[in-house]
Give the backbone structure.
Amino acid sequence: MRLNLPNLLTVCRFILIPIYITFYSLGHIKTAFAIVVLAGATDVLDGYLARRNGQITQLGIMLDPLADKCMMLTVVLSLLLTGRIPWPAAVAMFIREAGMIASSAFFHFRGKLTVPANTMGKIATVLFYFAFLFVFFEHSLGIFVLWTAIGLSFLASIVYFFLFKSLNKESAAQRQEP
């Protein structure tokens, strides 16, 4: 199987995870944050290129959100272990991200249609990046913005659930029509 450019960018996000861990663990906070921003930029770019060039693939549909969630969980774990974010925030994020990974995989392997990212989810992601910026550089707004992003991400998950349910109900009804 040959990787197209959007999928290659997604694979690069997986490669950035151990690079991020290395710089963060060595105390190079600015570089570590730059790697997080780079990962976010590749996420935006791969989605744009896939849609623009008609290169949306099943591999990309599965790997893209997995890469995002793995990077997000890595950042959260590193911030938690260094005392930059509180345990309840990290637990909430782990529950949400792990739930999204598990449910996506479960439904994908059952042949269910997936729901693309919605505006609320994209806004939550942008808020997470602002929260990370503030937390990395110890700005007083960091934890407030983090909790705001967590709340919005849970709301986005509820919206995803209802969209998923509606999309698959509609798809099942279309398959049953003569």
Observations:
- The mean pLDDT is 89.
- The first helix runs from residue 5 to 25.
